[in-house]
Amino acid sequence: MKNVTDSFVSLGRWPSAGSFGFNTDILATNPINLSVVLGVLIFFGKGVCVNDLLDNRKQRILSTIRNSEELRRGAIEQLERARARLRKVEMEADEYRMNGYSEIEREKANLINATSDSLEQLENYKNETLHFEQQRAINQVRQQVFQQVLQGALGTLNSCLNSELHFRTINANIGILGAMEEITD
Q1: Residue 155 lies in a domain
Q2: What's the 3-state SS for the chain?
Q3: How many separate domains does the chain show?
Q4: Is 60 exceeded by the pLDDT of residue 7?
Q5: Does a structural domain hold residue 71?
Q6: Confidence class of residue 4 from pLDDT cuts 50, 70 and 90?
Q7: Any coiled-coil ranges, and where (predicted)?
C-alpha cells in the first residue's frame, strides 16, 4: 500500500519533463483543473449552449411572430366588422335622414295647407263681417233717411193741414176702412 501512496506522492511533485502524472496538491491543481475543464466545456459546449440559446431565441421570436400575426388577423377582422357596422350605421343614418327630410317636407306641406285653409276661412269671415257691417250701415242709413223723410212729411202735413182738412182726411180713411170691412164680410 505504501507503494501506491508513494506513487501518488511522487506524482504530487513536479515530474520531470516528458513524464505524465497526477498532481494531488489541491491548491496547486484546482485552478489549473478548473481552467482546463472550463476550457473544454467552453470549446465543446459552446456550440451546444449557443445553439440551445439561439434555438430558444429563435423559437421565442417565431412564437412572437405567430402571436403578432394572429393578433394582426384578429385586428383586421375587427376592423372589417367595424367597417361593416359603420356602413350599416351610415345606411341607417341616410335612411333616417331621408325619412326625416320627407317627414319634414310632409309636415311643411301640411302646415302650408292648414295655414292656407285658415287664411281662407279668415278671408271668408272677414268678407262676411264686411257684408254684415255694410248691411247694418245701409239699414241704419235707411232708418235715418226714413225718419228724416217721415219727420219732413209730418212737418209738411202739419204745416199744410188745417183742422178741417185733417177732419176730412180722417173721415175718408174711416170710410175706406169701412168699405174694406164690408168686402171682407
Answers
A1: yes
A2: CHHHHHHHHHHHCCCCCCCCCCCCCHHHHHHHHHHHHHHHHHHHHHHHHHHHHHHHHHHHHHHHHHHHHHHHHHHHHHHHHHHHHHHHHHHHHHHHHHHHHHHHHHHHHHHHHHHHHHHHHHHHHHHHHHHHHHHHHHHHHHHHHHHHHHHHHHHHHHHHCCHHHHHHHHHHHHHHHHHHHHHHC
A3: 1
A4: no
A5: yes
A6: very low
A7: 65-128
10, part of any domain? no
Whole-prediction pTM: 0.36
Distance separating alpha carbons of residues 68 and 158, to the nearest angstrom: 129
Q: Which residue type, as a one-letter code, is found at position 59?
A: Q
Determine the structural domain holding residue 59 and report its residue range.
Answer: 34-171
pLDDT by residue (tens digit) across 95-147?
888 887 888 888 889 999 999 999 999 999 999 999 999 999 999 998 999 88
On whether the CB atoms of residues 12 and 24 are closer than 8 A, the answer is yes
Tell me which residue has cell 209738411: 156
